[in-house]
What we know:
Ribosomal protein L2, domain 3, seven-stranded antiparallel sheet, four-stranded antiparallel sheet, 2 helices, 17 strands, 24% strand
Amino acid sequence: MSIKNYSPTTPARRGMTTRDFDGITTRKPLKSLTTGKRQKSGRNAHGRITVRHRGGGAKRLYRNVSHNIPAGLKLTIMEIEYDPGRTANIARVKDQNGTFYYIVADTNMTKGMVISTGEESPIEISNRMPIANIPVGTQIYAIELVPGKGAQLIRSAGTSAQLMAKEGNYATIKMPSGEIRKVPVNSQASIGTVSNVQNKNVKIGSAGRKRRMGIRPTVRGVVQNATDHPHGGGDGGRHGTGKAPRTPWGQLTLGYRTRRNKDTTKFIVKSRHANKRRSK
């Protein structure tokens, strides 16, 4: 794919870019694999906002993507589709029994291509198999953290992890963030790189485009009232007294580690923060 520029008919359009849709083969999703998506504006079941700056946006259908495809299938790619709920493209595939699935598409998938799953699959791009069967050094995506649970890692546009080593019951992979971690060798993974590589280079260009995506404006803490944010208040002069930046709830930001899952720390060989210099 490539990046497409808009004609500068307005000031917003001058810097706006988008992706082309040359690889998309259909505009209409499969009805049986879609679900109506209700706008919750970032609120949970109790009506409290748990994700800020969400609301509005264009009406969308949720695509039921399968992250845990059974082994031993021969999948024929019927269509490559756009998914408004994720950055990557998705592929509509049909197995030998006539069952349809949606899966995350990679850069190699094309309409009419046949891919396979399971231990007997050949070592080819787009095929899915246990990590134990994949050669060291291969780029992989849609990786399981727990065997049988389904893909949890490497699902966003243009990403891939590198299989670094295999030793005993665990394999070592290098994540796009630079983190090196271990996963079980019997976890499933797909060979290749997730589609829509140029997604990170798209320039939104206008505020209205963000609103149609369901993202509301973000307001700086220093221009809010003191009751709404720790940085707020004041008489129009300098804000704050040199305190470290904080969230609206007082949690430190800019370097403060918030990771709480100590149970999986033993699987992280090298942190993604290891080579980053701390600002003074």
